[in-house]
Amino acid sequence: MNRPNMPLAVKVDAQLRPVWTRVERYVPPRSFGAVGRYGNAVELADGSVLVLCYYAGTPAAEDRPFYLLRLDGATGQLLQRHEFRSTICNRMAAFQLLADGDSAAYVLGACSAGPGGASVQAPYAARLSLRGLPAVVTAGASARPRPAEAAGLGRPYPNPAAGAVRVPYRRAAGTGPATLVLLDALGRRVRRVPVPAAPGGTLALPLAGLAAGLYWLRYEQAGAPVGPGRRLVVQP
To answer: How many CB atoms lie within 10 A of CB 106?
Structure first.
């Protein structure tokens, strides 16, 4: 069977181990032969991720938008989908998303069809407002990490677990209330445990009553995820 390609995003941890994967489903209406593709991604200060998405192989006369997807950095769950249309390009390939300070981003790509379906081969650039979203994390910012960025979770044990699991944690000095959150495979919060004020330690998280399966542990500071999530397998 001839199956169309689908864009696949994979988030990995510092050891290049997969944390989550996401396949972008087609947004109707979809033209026959259209292929969804991802551009690059940038991380926001709250741990979420912005990803470019566009469609290749669409008819030249079809005014097809491109998309900016905001994903949960811990689970890959779709948080927001922003649609953008161009007045100068019907068929645009959005390759690159570049941050411009904290309130905007540049989208760079290529245009192969103009209004009405005219055939063109030209570069494309657009500036998108990111107002209302957390700041983009840049390489320059990572050289001087904020206190909250020093916080996070260690590896849970035992894993797989049944009954309860122990989770090491660390938190930055002077930060406010923090929470250990357990999410199911659909990204729903199923357990919450306050993190003590101590700089570090180990939390005990009860698992009684949970269905067996794959879960995610997440450290939240002021309601926002901090650091990488941790995968947990719950046994019956």
So the answer is: 13
Beta-bridged to residue 225, according to DSSP, are 220
pLDDT digits (tens, 9 = 90+) for 189-223: 899 999 888 888 888 999 999 998 888 898 888 77
Please state the domain count of the chain: 2
Residue type, 105: A
Q: Is 89 helix (H, G, I), strand (E, B) or coil?
A: coil
Q: Which of 51, 69, 137 is nearest to 99 (CA)?
A: 137
pLDDT exceeds cutoff 50 at 16: yes
What is the CB neighbour count within 10 angstroms for residue 68?
21
Same domain, 165 and 229: yes
| Cα within 13 Å of Cα(235), Cβ side | 9
Mean pLDDT (whole number) for 123-136: 83
Q: By residue range, what is the domain housing residue 202? A: 152-234
- Distance CA(115)–CA(169), nearest Å, equals 55
Q: What is the pTM of this model?
A: 0.56
